Amino acid sequence: MLSYVFGVALVVVATYGTFSQPGRGYFTTQMVDLERRVEAVASSGDLGDDRRDYAVELVGSEPWLDYMFTAAILRPHDRGPLDLYFVGKSGALLRSADQLVTSVGTRYDQAACRSSAPRDALVVVGAECLAGDSP
Q1: Dist CA 121 CA 36 (whole Å)
Q2: Does position 21 have pLDDT exceeding 70, yes or no?
Q3: Exposure pattern of 49-70 as b/e (b: 16+ CB <10 Å)?
């Protein structure tokens, strides 16, 4: 119950922060659509049960939205690797993650590392496979 309340509070704060600031705006319909797509991937069975999955470079998104969807929908046990990713240390995320949910065509979408076929412009990729491809 507490995690649900935290998730709702996070969404409320993030929404307020987004819509009360000048700059790039987001339509609620776009956010709800992206949320629906991430939820569809999460419930598809393409992700493991170990809860080491993260969302990165989602379509039409920014890092803080990726973080919000990771925390609220994918609910990894440890968000630390995601924090490191946002300060430019993607290697830590790749070493800690099991799988990544990303948009088709991003730098993380490597065909050889896909764990599933694309679903609504999102794909699941194996982080260990990607870590082997990175320097």
Answers
A1: 12
A2: no
A3: eeebbbbbbbbebeeebbbbbb
